[in-house]
Design goal:
Elements: E1 2-6, H1 11-17, H2 20-28, E2 33-40, H3 53-70, E3 74-81, H4 84-95, E4 99-103, H5 115-125, E5 130-133, E6 152-156, H6 161-167, H7 170-173, E7 179-186, H8 198-210, E8 215-222, H9 225-236, E9 240-244, H10 252-258, H11 260-266, E10 270-274
Parallel strand pairs: 1-2, 1-4, 2-3, 4-5, 6-7, 6-9, 7-8, 9-10
Antiparallel strand pairs: 5-10
Helix pairs in contact: 4-5, 5-11
Family: Belongs to the universal stress protein A family.
InterPro entries: Rossmann-like_a/b/a_fold, Universal_stress_UspA, UspA
Organism: Natronomonas pharaonis (strain ATCC 35678 / DSM 2160 / CIP 103997 / JCM 8858 / NBRC 14720 / NCIMB 2260 / Gabara) (Halobacterium pharaonis)
């Protein structure tokens, strides 16, 4: 597997890149090559005398690359200019990445750019599954919030085709998953449970996970999907929330605004957001 790892060269990005546990988790799911990407926003000028911007950026990238290579990954570094989320997606498409990894907090002293806003933009547009690695807020020396990225997974489903695609990521995640909680939120617009029982559908998914020796439980809730998924996260305390980026809704922005983007913005831990399948480039 190939992954794009986006960094704004902030302390938060450094915490994610230098977490040995996080790196082992990526290795366990089959990531072998990392494309390390930093984006200089178009409105930032790098040639201001006395800042040594380019030297500092290259020094930071070289240090991160050494850390990742020492952890056993093949690494290629990319320093590009433009709108961060667009350029990150562009690199991901160019290298046919299987995963995009981005930190959820941090303001770069070099670029004065919040990586958290980039994560939210990627939630709307990511061309590959997006792993948002949550990092501590309001501290000068942050650490990752959940070191084990996938160990305790909360999977949220509305039983749509994109939710099923998100479920299929367990096919490569399972070596790093110890247990899972499967959540469905019933809303007034959903079919009558007597005709389409969510408990039975979740139980069928749970049986599939148990074939991989994943200890699994189910949780059916009622109310607003975003609110209830966040409440389930608070109750079950997973290391990661897994969900698709689209569901029954046909209007992309409407769905993202009500569910996926809200989870990326407000979840306490890590989030893996899986977009609809798109045509793959020949390898």
């Amino acid at each position: 597997m190939k992954a794009v790892c986006a960094t704004d060269l902030s302390a938060a990005s450094e915490a994610a890149i230098e977490s040995e546990t996080c790196l082992r988790c990526l290795s366990r799911i089959g990531v072998e090559k990392l494309h390390l990407v930093t984006v200089v926003p178009s409105n930032v000028h790098t040639g201001i005398p006395g800042l040594n911007f380019e030297e500092r950026r290259q020094s930071a990238l070289s240090r991160y690359q050494s850390v990742l290579e020492s952890a056993g990954f093949e690494v290629e570094a990319h320093a590009v200019r433009g709108t961060p989320y667009r350029r990150i997606n562009g690199v991901a498409e160019a290298v046919d990445a299987d995963l995009i990894i981005v930190g959820s907090r941090g303001e770069s002293p070099l670029e004065n750019r919040a990586i958290g806003s980039t994560a939210r933009n990627l939630a709307r547009t990511a061309v590959a599954p997006l792993l948002v690695n949550r990092v501590e807020e309001a501290t000068d020396d942050p650490e990752v919030v959940r070191e084990h990225l996938f160990q305790h997974t909360l999977y949220a489903t509305d039983f749509s085709s994109n939710a099923e695609q998100a479920f299929e990521t367990f096919s490569y995640l399972h070596p790093a998953v110890q247990d899972a909680t499967l959540v469905h939120v019933q809303t007034p617009k959903d079919p009558d449970p007597e005709d389409d029982d969510p408990e039975e559908r979740l139980a069928a998914l749970a049986d599939r996970l148990r074939e991989w020796d994943i200890d699994t439980q189910t949780d059916v809730r009622y109310g607003d999907p975003a609110d209830e998924i966040l409440a389930a996260e608070a109750d079950h305390e997973p290391t990661m929330v897994l969900l698709g980026s689209r569901g029954h809704g046909r209007l992309r922005r409407l769905l993202l605004g009500s569910v996926s983007e809200e989870i990326v913005a407000h979840a306490d831990g890590n989030v893996l957001l899986v977009p609809p399948e798109r045509p793959r480039q020949p390898r």
